[in-house]
């Protein structure tokens, strides 16, 4: 095993403090998407394994001090943070191997989530769990009222494959630090980003048995079992809107709290006074980086008719020169799609767009220069019909759909013509004008002239079918807490 290159992760899951394989020993393959080769295996857990994990988490919540001892939680997460820092380069090799993410752009996969562990440790330690709201008059009597923030209980976390280690951390660390116990079910395409977190928790921290569990499985029904289990109080999920709907329905019978971060089809509204040479190379880069496999990246660009050809030329030049290739090459910015199935889905949506009148200005297919790997060419589609599937469905590929518009009102209407409402972007020489348009977007966040809305200290989430609730910021921490109001005689 060399210091760089493919690395097989840990095949084991973590249940009730024990790293283990499923009874019977079944495994599933982990495929390196850049070579289509089997990089190793993961244990193929069952619904029985899931039931044991939920049982352990329930017991740990109900019978240990975890939910009541914030200083102990702080010490445990601090240990975890240090251990992850020591493990950083191994983690990087795991995510490049199982995701195919270019090694030069792994910051959001590795450094950022490691920092996030420390952030939630500090945030949860200084959070005021008890608030005295003073005297209140109701129906002629006076009482003093306190608000106490309690953990919700057992939290099931179900994560996707696009930024797996980051999302495993983002969905579980605020939950743990708030005093909940957790069962994590990582995506089947990327089990090692989950097993690595489980291994480090088990081997390098004092987190008690049952407080943090990781169940690996190749079967969707194991995630479904977690979302339907009556002993689970809350589900936190990042993934497709279709799966989010199934999880919400599964939790209905026990009225589970549900935090959902689902799909997106973000639009970038370019106003007629915008500096195109500034806004558009970045827009094209954002479409291709991570192979387009991110819910927030704007995949629709709305260009004013008066500057349409000028804008298309800039986008085309950036996409034609985009560095695509071997994820281990530090100069590469776009690797393969994660799987053959995802590549087929992307190619299918491109074909559908063309059939409904879009013009392919660059790309449109599989790059001929690679013999192996699930690559898709950076693809620029012009004259896209805003109602066509390629403009309506989340694509998760390096594909930009460009739609021309005449008036600002029309641009806003096209941007909002979506079941999704995750994020958006507006570019203009006039910041006030851009802000006014951004206010009209029905989304959970928006970028104005490249300004970054995303970060641990600000709420993030979707409107409409892009989700429920928020991650990050104080709002994101309180999602994992119940509010208890206490009345005392004045
Ligand atoms: P994709 O379709 O791209 O694989 P999903 O949103 O279906 O994305 O998957 C995200 C996560 O949801 C994965 O961990 C997957 O195992 C899990 N999952 C899939 N189906 C269900 C379900 N019905 N209930 C709960 N979890 C599920």
TrEMBL record:
Record-linked InterPro entries: Ald_DH/histidinol_DH, Ald_DH_C, Ald_DH_CS_GLU, Ald_DH_N, Aldehyde_DH_dom
Domain of life of the source: Bacteria
Keyword Oxidoreductase applies: yes
Pfam family, one: Aldedh
One MF term in the entry's GO annotations: oxidoreductase activity, acting on the aldehyde or oxo group of donors, NAD or NADP as acceptor
Active site (catalytic residues): 261
Keywords: Oxidoreductase
Keyword Transmembrane: no
Domain Aldehyde dehydrogenase: 26-485
Alphabetized PANTHER family for the sequence: ALDEHYDE DEHYDROGENASE (PTHR42804), ALDEHYDE DEHYDROGENASE-RELATED (PTHR42804:SF1)
Similarity comment: family membership: Belongs to the aldehyde dehydrogenase family.
Protein name (database record): Aldehyde dehydrogenase family protein
Species assigned in the record: Cryptosporangium phraense
């Amino acid at each position: 095993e060399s210091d760089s290159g493919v690395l097989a992760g840990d095949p084991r899951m973590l249940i009730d403090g024990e790293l283990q394989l499923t009874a019977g020993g079944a495994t599933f393959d982990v495929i390196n998407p850049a070579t289509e080769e089997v990089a190793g295996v993961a244990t193929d857990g069952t619904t029985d394994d899931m039931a044991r994990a939920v049982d352990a988490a329930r017991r740990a919540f109900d019978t240990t001090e975890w939910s009541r001892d914030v200083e102990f939680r702080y010490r445990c997460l601090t240990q975890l943070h240090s251990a992850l820092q020591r493990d950083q380069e191994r983690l990087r090799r795991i995510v490049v191997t199982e995701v195919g993410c270019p090694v030069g752009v792994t910051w959001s996969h590795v450094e950022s989530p490691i920092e996030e562990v420390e952030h939630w440790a500090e945030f949860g330690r200084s959070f005021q769990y008890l608030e005295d709201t003073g005297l209140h008059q109701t129906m002629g009597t006076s009482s003093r009222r306190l608000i106490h923030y309690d953990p919700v209980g057992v939290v099931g976390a179900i994560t996707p494959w696009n930024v797996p280690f980051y999302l495993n951390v983002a969905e579980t660390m605020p939950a743990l630090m708030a005093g909940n116990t957790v069962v994590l079910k990582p995506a089947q395409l990327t089990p090692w980003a989950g097993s690595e977190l489980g291994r480090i928790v088990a081997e390098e921290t004092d987190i008690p048995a049952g407080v943090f569990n990781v169940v690996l499985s190749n079967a969707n029904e194991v995630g479904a079992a977690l979302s339907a289990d009556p002993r689970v109080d809350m589900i936190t999920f990042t993934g497709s809107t279709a799966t989010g709907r199934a999880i919400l329905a599964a939790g209905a019978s026990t009225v589970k709290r549900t935090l959902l971060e689902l799909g997106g089809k973000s639009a970038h509204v370019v106003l007629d006074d915008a500096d195109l040479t500034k806004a558009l190379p970045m827009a094209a880069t954002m479409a291709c980086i991570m192979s387009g496999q991110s819910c927030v990246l704007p995949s629709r660009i709305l260009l004013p008719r008066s500057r349409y050809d000028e804008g298309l030329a800039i986008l085309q030049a950036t996409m034609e020169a985009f560095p695509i290739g071997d994820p281990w090459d530090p100069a590469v910015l776009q690797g393969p799609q994660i799987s053959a199935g995802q590549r087929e889905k992307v190619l299918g949506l491109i074909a559908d767009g063309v059939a409904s009148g879009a013009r392919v200005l660059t790309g449109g297919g599989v790059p001929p220069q690679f013999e192996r790997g699930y690559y898709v060419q950076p693809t620029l589609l012009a004259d896209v019909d805003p109602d066509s599937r390629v403009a309506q469905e989340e694509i998760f590929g390096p594909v930009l759909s460009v739609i021309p518009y005449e008036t600002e009102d029309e641009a806003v209407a096209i941007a909002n013509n979506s079941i999704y409402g995750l994020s958006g972007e507006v570019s203009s020489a006039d910041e006030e004008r851009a802000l006014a348009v951004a206010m009209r977007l029905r989304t959970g966040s928006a970028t104005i002239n490249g300004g970054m809305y995303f970060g641990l200290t600000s709420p993030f989430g979707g409107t409409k079918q892009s989700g429920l609730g928020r991650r990050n910021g104080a709002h994101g921490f309180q999602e994992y807490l119940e509010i208890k109001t206490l009345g005392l005689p004045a």
